[in-house]
């Protein structure tokens, strides 16, 4: 009898351990949220959100667009007004560590050095870094325009630019106590401009790959990884996805020139385009990113499970996970989220449905359902 009981206990333990191992195997390694870093007066509310909403949903990756919203000591001239203090950041670090959430700070590099008619801090303070100084920002911005201006870029070959941006990177990853940094690098329309004395006539793909590699190599010196958005590595014309989700200026060939340990955040917001397979076949870890359409976000989740299930052992772990991206500040997102959560019986209009907070909830509800069903 004792032997039978012992055997049953061993069998139960084996089944439990096996089931737990299978469950871990079926998890997506990255379950993420990308959002602007909170302003100083939003930090406490955001920390509460980490504890009460991110942790229960088992979000394990949080990309925060910091840019110049930090009191940099290396370059105080680049700080935003009322920027985050070190103690503000440490509140978020403490909360994230408590729930095993990886914090990844982002500073937009190369592109996105302006927005509409407003110049970003880097080019405002260091105008000599501008790739296209001859293009003036209009009083009233409109797209399309004669200059092809979306956002300004810095010149990747300017001899002084990396001394500045590397100092910012080093400082921000240190204060966030992290092993990863997000450089943005999306929607770069200005690169290798014909009037740039350093870049004119050079291969745009090589210029883009060179900048990615410089940033990656600098981070590697301290065993940190680079994350970037993937749109400039996709041929927008051949795929038909256009000049926002893909490249029209031939930077897409850089996909074969950059180190394979760069993590690609592959964003598609109107439809779940299957380009994670493209990046995985090129040897990259890829995170599939959604925004404000719940059915698209849910499809991203379903696709990543499908890609992992239907690929080889060599390939499948490159399908690293999913991320919801939020393109507003913290307060509009949290107001929308808590309003939605507080009224679950309200029948949503199409406009009310197509919101990032609804997508966030439905994406990670679907994720949990798929993990359960896979086991």
Task: Give an account of the 3D structure.
- The structure is a single chain.
- With 375 residues, the chain is α/β, with parallel strands linked by helices.
- It has a single domain (30-113, 155-374), classed as Alpha-Beta Barrel (TIM Barrel), CATH 3.20.20.
- Helix content is 42%, strand content 14%.
- It contains 14 helices and 10 strands.
- It has helices at 2-26, 43-54, 86-98, 121-125, 161-175, 204-220, 236-239, 242-245, 275-281, 294-309, 313-316, 330-342, 350-353, 356-374, and strands at 30-36, 61-65, 102-109, 114-115, 118-119, 180-184, 225-229, 263-267, 286-290, 319-325.
- The strands form 2 sheets. An 8-stranded parallel barrel has the order 1-2-3-6-7-8-9-10, surrounded by 6 helices. A two-stranded antiparallel sheet has the order 4-5.
- The radius of gyration is 22 Å and the shape is globular.
- Residues 1-23 form the signal peptide.
- InterPro entries: GH (IPR017853), Glyco_hydro_20_cat (IPR015883), HEXDC-like (IPR038901).
- This is N-acetyl-beta-hexosaminidase.
């Amino acid at each position: 009898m004792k032997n039978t009981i012992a055997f049953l206990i061993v069998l139960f333990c084996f089944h439990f351990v096996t089931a737990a191992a299978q469950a871990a195997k079926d998890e997506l390694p990255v379950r993420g949220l990308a959002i602007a870093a909170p302003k100083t007066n939003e930090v406490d509310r955001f920390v509460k959100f980490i504890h009460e909403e991110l942790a229960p949903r088992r979000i394990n990756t949080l990309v925060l667009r910091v840019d110049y919203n930090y009191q940099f000591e290396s370059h105080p001239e680049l700080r935003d007004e009322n920027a985050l203090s070190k103690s503000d950041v440490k509140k978020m670090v403490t909360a994230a560590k408590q729930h095993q959430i990886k914090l990844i700070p982002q500073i937009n590099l190369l592109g996105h050095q302006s927005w509409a008619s407003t110049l970003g801090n880097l080019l405002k303070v260091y105008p000599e870094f501008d790739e296209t100084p001859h293009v003036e920002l209009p009083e009233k911005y409109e797209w399309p325009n004669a200059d092809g201006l979306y956002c300004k870029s810095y010149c990747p070959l300017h001899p002084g630019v990396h001394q500045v941006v590397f100092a910012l990177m080093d400082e921000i990853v240190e204060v966030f106590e992290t092993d990863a940094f997000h450089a943005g690098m999306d929607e770069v329309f200005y690169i290798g401009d014909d009037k740039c004395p350093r870049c004119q006539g050079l291969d745009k793909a090589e210029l883009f790959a060179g900048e990615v590699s410089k940033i990656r190599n600098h981070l590697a010196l301290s065993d940190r990884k680079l994350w970037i958005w993937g749109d400039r590595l996709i041929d927008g014309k051949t795929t038909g996805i256009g000049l926002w989700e893909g490249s029209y200026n031939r930077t897409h060939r850089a996909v074969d020139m950059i180190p394979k340990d760069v993590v690609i955040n592959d964003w598609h917001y109107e439809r779940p385009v299957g380009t994670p397979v493209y990046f995985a076949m090129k040897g990259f870890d890829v995170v599939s990113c959604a925004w404000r359409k719940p059915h698209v976000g849910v499809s991203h989740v379903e696709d990543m499970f499908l890609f992992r299930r239907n690929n080889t052992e060599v390939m499948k772990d490159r399908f690293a996970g999913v991320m919801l991206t939020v393109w507003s500040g913290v307060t509009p997102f949290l107001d929308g989220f808590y309003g939605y959560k507080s009224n679950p019986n309200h029948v949503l209009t199409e406009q009310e449905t197509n919101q990032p907070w609804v997508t966030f909830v439905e994406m990670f509800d679907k994720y949990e359902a798929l993990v359960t069903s896979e086991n």
